Give the backbone structure.
Amino acid sequence: MSVETHLGVGAIGELSGILEAHGVETVLVVTGPYSYSMSGATDMVDPVLAPYRTVRFSTLADYPDLPDIERGVELCRRAKPDVVIAVGGGTVIDIAKLLRICSANDATPGEIATGVGKIKQTGPPLVAIPTTAGSGSEATHFAVIFDQQRKYSVAHQFVQPDFAIVDPSLTYSMSEEQTAVCGLDVLCQSVESIWSVGSSKESRTWASEAVQLVLLNLLEAVQAPNQSCRESMSRAAHLAGRAINITKTTAPHALSYTLTTSYGLPHGHAVALTLGSFLEFNDEVSEEDLNDPRGVEHVREVIGEVCSLLGVGSPMEGHRAIADLMVAIGMETRLGPYGIRNAVACEQIVETVNVERLSNNPRSPTKAQLAQILEKLI
């Protein structure tokens, strides 16, 4: 399933034509509690919605939380919208994906999350309009659900939005910290996509361009943002989303979720903390712990590609380059300041890891190796 994508400053102007083409009467708009107004969407989107019956759902959670999703599904079923529009960051877009899917199928969000409920129908068209340059969720066919800090991933072709409107002007209000965190998520998605066992020539092309755009523009976007670097970061985020839509993410993402739900680290920061460690770890792959059927040499070749993109000659130097970038944009590189101060805490985090994400990693880590990676970051 392909997403009709409109990318660039002024792309929001395409929304009216999409609504007119679908003979829309009722619109469900999914937003966050603050991003809709802060991004300028109130001025850009509300006038387009004026001719239509508009029902609004504002998520209260920092990540797609099951009770919040259940509340939204109930509203969506009552409203019976002709189109769903998500205006926000990755959480908002993921929730909108789940609202339209769950409302169209005879299953609860919890049943969809666990796989008990089956996705048989697509629901109304979904328009995804990101207000951050980060998740790339507008391009992917998956969404996440958190239930009491346990993470579930829902993957299906019907989850993918029908339309993506990526207008960088909606990201101009992002704070320094938000820009940094979202930019790190783009970098991690892109690098992980390159070394993922599911990578293809197409996905690596998109991911490589995304890495280059992040390295050229993230520091400026954080410290002295302008239209050019905001546009580049929005493009990078979208390309990274396209790449992981093919490959999925890998070990750094697998370790990140508990850092977010239990220790409060923003998602992109949580992933970036271990990215450099896994760059070194994956380069040491052997026949005994190889996950990628293309072989050890292929894995080392793609790790070399990542190092080349980072402008370094070795994984160790790449690890240092990633840490240097994090420091430059004001991000902590150690786990200790967030309350992770001993081996027991690291082992507890490892016990929560999503095994599927580890199977996408080119080298298969043991629990002891994962704990060791975390311990070195204390």
Observations:
- The chain has 16 helices and eight strands.
- Strands lie at 4-7, 26-31, 53-58, 83-88, 126-130, 142-147, 150-155, 163-166.
- The chain has two domains: 4-171, 176-375.
- The domain at 176-375 is CATH 1.20.1090.10 (Dehydroquinate synthase-like, alpha domain).
